[in-house]
Amino acid sequence: WRKPGCAGPSFTYGMPPRVEGLERLRPGVSKPADVVAVLGEPRGKGETLMPVGRSTGWFYYYGEVEGGRTRIKYLLVFLVQDWYDGELSYDGYLWFDAERTTSPREK
Q: Which residue of 9, 22, 78, 85 shows the fewest CB atoms closer than 10 Å?
């Protein structure tokens, strides 16, 4: 609970994903080093399971809170393993950007 007029907390987490470079990545051609060069190091890595099969997922996250406003950005990059040489290559991405404003509860 906050008193009316209080600014509330203010902080950020992570770095905003550099999505302006996504158009430079080519599915089936760009390698993991290319993804890092364009987007930077991911915050996390893991395996994804989609209807079309399994792939490697790289996760980028940024969050900011200022008073009653919260904004989050998620970028999930997919890499698939080539069946011939076993190397990973870029396969695509999912991008989410959401903002929410809340007001303090009053007693």
A: 85
